Amino acid sequence: MLARRIIPCLDVRAGRVVKGVQFKNHEDVGDIIELALRYSQQGADELVFYDITASVDNRTVSPNWIQAVSRAIDIPFCVAGGINSVEAARARLSAGADKISINSPALQNPDLINQLSAAFGQQCIVIGIDSFTENGTYRVKSHTGDPEKTRETGRATLDWVQEVIQRGAGEIVLNCMNQDGVRKGYDLEQLNAVRMVCSVPLIASGGAGETQHFQDVFERANVDGALAASVFHKSIIAIPDLKADLKRAGVEIRL
Amino acid sequence: MSLVIVNTGVANISSVKFAFERLGITPIVTDTPEIIRSAARIILPGVGAAPLAMETINSKGLTPVLQSLTQPVMGICLGMQLLFETLEEGETTTKGLGLIPGTVERLDTQSLPTPHMGWNTLAITRKDPILSEINANDYAYFVHGFSVKIGSYTLSKTTYGSEFSAIVRHNNIYGCQFHPERSAKTGAKILENFLKVSI
Fold first, then answer.
1. B136 in A contact zone (CB under 8 Å)
2. DSSP label of B162
């Protein structure tokens, strides 16, 4: 049976792992390689490295730390942040990243998804979507790394999900921004709505605060993976305990 | 031991190289026929689309080289699929290396999210030294949309919507549909076993 994935997300700024609340006020939480190794040894199923300033600063992720991560760990990892061309993607994949995740550049140039999928295959193209709930509808925002540069995209989340799949996305990470960093649980309603239209693997992001939230998102929103940051970085939840508890609750989990 | 990773220009070469380095082996990444022929072990990596990968192998003149090897060879993911006779991806049919009789087809995932991505369990169908210390229901990391059905070459199978070959062997040729280089301890053990097998 395919296991549900537990995915720590490491927000990277200036070569360090940081974490903010609702994408603001970042605090330093540690060294990239140290954290990557610790999480993989604790049983993380996959890691996501997100260069939170890359898109807003108009630069790209440094392949140097990507290679160091690839050398150190034996689980898959995805890199995100400012990848806006086939060549930028190639550099990251060649450095050892298993997948690349595109967010703002895909909104600016949706055809980039087709190009990346054709060049590297659907399986390594992840689309990150930052979605806000507003008056009962789900809307996509871009450039969320900096609150002052965050933009409305005029896109409805459910439409964008279907468009990126049709263009060749292999996986979707849905970041429900109203929930981000506040640890009140994943947005099950929104994730369910997206699950209904999402034929590729779906990863939930934003809101994990306790073990029950992970169980809920797997059992009630049927997502393939659950991404979280602060609960792991702040040792609120230990990955081995989380996975053992989920397994005991009947969730398919790799121990 | 000399281990060659065939440089097919695909993206996951570094991760495969690093996985062997973690086992204390320094692989040679090359597309030079003489170095490939003289290696004790050969890895054929691969991710992405089959037509482009075969085109690269053909344009580098490596097809006859890879078809004439007698030492242990392991194909990984797309590299495994290229070992078969025919690869059917949508409307395109690609001629593979033909080292294992069989066809690569789209995996029928039923109504499950596609592609098959994540950690799934191995069921052992045939004993082999490559599976030494690998237990039934050990997890391996898969990322693929195409697969090979169960056949006489199947050593281990996995189910996602339908059953498919996870590990295959035909004479000196091995293949893993999953990524051993990204499958934690289970993957490392399989790579270590590959270094030890004698044909």
1. no
2. E
A21 in any annotated domain: yes
Give domain limits for chain B: 3-196
Which of A1, A67, A98 is facing B182, going by the closest CB pair?
Answer: A98
Of B19, B48, B114, the CB nearest to A74: B19
Q: Evaluate whether residue A152 is within a structural domain.
A: yes
Mean pLDDT by 10 residues, chain A (255 residues): 96 79 69 95 96 63 82 96 88 91 94 94 94 92 80 94 98 90 90 98 96 98 95 93 98 97
DSSP labels, B92-111: EEEE---SEEEEEEE---TT
Q: The domain spanning residue A109 has which CATH number?
A: 3.20.20.70
Q: Do B141 and A76 touch (CB under 8 A)?
A: yes
User: Do the Cβ atoms of A123 and B14 come within 8 Å?
Assistant: no
The answer to whether residue A253 is domain-embedded is no
Interchain contact A205–B (C-beta under 8 A): no
Task: Report the catalytic residues of B.
Answer: 77, 179, 181
Residue A224 and residue B113: Cβ atoms within 8 Å? Answer: yes
User: How many domains does the structure of chain A reveal?
Assistant: 1
Name the B residues in 52-111 with CB < 8 Å from any A CB.
none
> Is residue A57 within 8 Å of residue A78, measured between CB atoms?
no
> Nearest-CA residue of chain A relative to B159?
A1
Q: Which fold has domain B3-196?
A: Rossmann fold (3.40.50)
What ipTM was assigned to the predicted interfaces of this complex? 0.94
d(CA B51, CA B75): 16
A88: containing domain? 5-248
Q: Look up the pTM and report it.
A: 0.94
Sign of CA dihedral B73, B79, B81, B86: negative
Q: Is residue A166 part of a domain?
A: yes
* Separation CA A231–CA B177 (nearest Å): 34
Checking B82-86 for CB contacts under 8 A at 24+ apart, the result is B82/B44, B82/B46, B82/B50, B82/B53, B82/B54, B82/B57, B83/B44, B83/B168, B83/B170, B83/B173, B83/B175, B84/B148
- The beta strand positions in A14-80, using DSSP E, are 16-21, 24-31, 47-51, 77-80
Q: Buried b vs exposed e over B107-133: b needs ≥16 C-beta within 10 Å? A: bebeebbbbbbbbbbbebbeebebbee
Of all residues in chain A, the one with the smallest CA distance to B163 is: A1
Residues 110-169 of A with CB under 8 A from B: 118-124
